[in-house]
Amino acid sequence: MPWILLVVAALMELVWATALKQSEGFTRFWPTVIGVPVCLLSVVVLTVALRDLPVGTAYAVWVGLGSLGVAVTGIVALGESASAPRVLCLALILVGVIGLKAVEG
């Protein structure tokens, strides 16, 4: 269950980071209203997962999956670069997350 919570928290990071980008520095109402509470909820869910997971592993997975999700969203939905070096680095993040899951169980 803590790993599921961790993935949910990371998915929420994808939502809040994208919403805050769309908020244009908190100048647009709805993206701000979505981004800020989801950010707080993401941290709350991470905190619950930390009851059963080592902090270093949980934080690295949370940030890694969140960053990966935001980067992919940027590529797919926002027209950001999908250069080979960038995609390779994103793949390495995924490999690291999978590796952490494998060694923590």
From TrEMBL:
Membrane topology, as annotated: Multi-pass membrane protein
UniProt entry keywords in alphabetical sequence: Cell membrane, Membrane, Transmembrane, Transmembrane helix, Transport
Compartments where located: Cell membrane
InterPro entries associated with the record: EmrE-like (IPR037185), Small_drug/metabolite_transptr (IPR000390), Small_multidrug_res (IPR045324)
Source taxon at top rank: Bacteria
Residues annotated as transmembrane: 33-50, 57-78, 84-103
Similarity comment: family membership: Belongs to the drug/metabolite transporter (DMT) superfamily. Small multidrug resistance (SMR) (TC 2.A.7.1) family.
Record protein name field: Multidrug efflux SMR transporter
